[in-house]
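> example.struct
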């Protein structure tokens, strides 16, 4: 018998959501908070297979180095 997984949130493909997540990541004060945001970005990428939010997140954290 197949099992069902309950998804407690539905990631949005909205540009404001992406921008907000990146902003939260850049302002995160702890590695635990950054990890939680990266996990949220991965869930978003799985639900929205267009441009990778995780790539944007990591690129933004590099700043001018990238």
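> example.seq
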């Amino acid at each position: 018998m197949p099992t069902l997984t309950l998804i407690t949130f539905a990631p949005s493909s909205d540009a404001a959501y992406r921008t907000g997540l990146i902003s939260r990541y850049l302002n995160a004060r702890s590695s635990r908070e950054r990890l939680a945001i990266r996990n949220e970005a991965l869930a978003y990428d799985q639900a929205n297979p267009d441009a990778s939010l995780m790539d944007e997140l990591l690129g933004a954290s590099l700043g001018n180095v990238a």
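> remarks
The chain has one domain: 15-65.
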